[in-house]
Design goal:
The chain has 14 helices and 14 strands. It is α/β, with parallel strands linked by helices. Strand 7, helix 6 and strand 8 form a beta-alpha-beta unit. Helix 11 runs parallel beside helix 13. The longest helix is centred in the middle third of the chain and has 15 residues, at about 145-160.
Length: about 400
């Protein structure tokens, strides 16, 4: 990990009506030609993402979006991408022409309120308009000499409205064992593991342990028993990949707490209690019920892929029912969730917490149960209660 991954960055969406200067603002803030600018309406089509280190906030991800009020042939498709960007935005930066607040701006303000996303107003082209409003930042986005001033003013506003869970995020696992304790991580190196690397949750877990002065022993599953038997003192916590959770539980003495990386992610990125509650739907599924499996990354599925092959097979075997199982990947999540009885979300290591919470909210609003890979697999293998012992649920 040479830099912070997107999923751990503060997501800031730059929104506004067409030709309000959103892309020019992005270029000004980053000091680069990160986005194409033009006087033609609808220049920005897909969301333009630009990572930046913004001290003292830390790593952020700017999301430059297509403008509201685009009545071109592709306008509706462009707006779909903008709405999706708002699903993962931690903060909205609204770019206005002068201090005009018309129908497009009102729509954005209302959307931000509805989604409980903090909003900062940028009044662009201050050199052309007589701006009297005092509730925003006055800029001329094409004036590169003003970059330091604009950045400093914007950072002050970002710090003021930044969500508390970003400034003071809970640990991934550092609170589950005391300082100077021993944590064993069982890490399979199968064909799904990236060559020469570990997967993101494993890397994050290792770093979180180091941040909390915990000692880590990383082992492959075949050597776990040998390490456990040769330790002078028992470990305080054992963590494994969900695919071998039943083996870990069988080999771990009952007095030692254990869980999985994916269950840690369910707590860190979303709402573990709701994911556990959603897993109760598995035993209630009936013939013909639909299940949606949501993979947040867009990797090429392996022959025995966890989301497309293993979980469906385990689900069919456990329930004994004829289920209809659909899959989505990336930012796609579907609009008609009411068709499903259960949504099974991946660990979400490639998306931020707001998007996971947004997906949980969508499911609740549609009356659909939602769980995640780790909770689901542990339930399917009959060990969920055991791997929930480290948590106060």
């Amino acid at each position: 990990m040479q830099s912070a991954p997107k999923s751990l960055r503060l997501h800031i969406a730059i929104v506004g009506r067409v030709n309000s200067g959103k892309s020019s603002l992005l270029n000004l803030l980053t000091g680069q030609q990160a986005a194409i600018t033009s006087e033609l309406a609808g220049t920005t089509t897909d969301v333009v993402e630009k990572a930046q280190e913004l001290h003292p906030l830390g790593p952020v991800l700017w999301l430059d979006t297509a403008g509201f009020g685009d009545d071109s042939v592709l306008g509706d498709k462009r707006m779909e991408k903008t709405y999706r960007a708002l699903e993962r935005a931690d903060i909205v930066v609204l770019v206005c022409l002068g201090d005009t607040i018309g129908e497009p701006e009102e729509k954005i303000i209302n959307l931000a309120k509805e989604k409980n996303i903090p909003l900062i107003k940028i009044y662009n082209q201050a050199d052309k308009y007589d701006i009297t409003a005092t509730d925003g930042i006055k800029v001329n986005a094409t004036d590169l000499s003003s970059r330091d001033r604009v950045l400093n003013e914007l950072k002050a506003q970002l710090i003021k409205v930044c969500p508390e869970d970003f400034l003071n995020s809970q640990p991934l696992l550092g609170d589950l064992a005391p300082a100077n304790s021993t944590v064993i991580m069982i890490i399979p190196l199968d064909y799904e593991a990236p060559k020469g690397r570990l997967i993101m949750p494993q890397v994050q877990a290792i770093r979180d342990c180091l941040d909390h002065n915990q000692n880590i022993i990383a082992v492959k599953e075949d050597n776990y028993i040998n390490i456990l038997n040769n330790l002078k003192n028992k470990p305080d916590l054992v963590i494994c990949d969900s695919q071998i959770v039943d083996r870990m539980v069988k080999e771990t003495p009952p007095e030692i707490k254990c869980t999985t990386f994916s269950i840690l992610m369910a707590r860190f990125k979303g709402d573990l209690a709701k994911m556990v509650h959603g897993a109760q739907m598995i035993s209630k599924l009936q013939d013909g019920d639909k299940v949606l499996i949501a993979e947040s990354c867009t990797h090429h599925a392996a022959e025995d892929d966890i989301g497309k092959v293993k979980i469906p097979n385990w689900l069919l075997k456990k329930t004994g029912k004829q289920l209809q199982i659909d899959h989505v990947s990336g930012c796609d999540f579907g609009t008609d969730l009411s068709r499903y009885k259960l949504v099974i979300q991946c660990g979400g290591c490639n998306i931020n917490r707001r998007e996971i919470l947004s997906r949980i909210y969508k499911c609740e609003h549609a009356g659909v149960a939602i769980t995640n890979y780790g909770v689901c697999i542990s339930e399917l293998k009959g060990v969920l209660n055991r791997v929930l012992e480290p948590f106060n649920l």
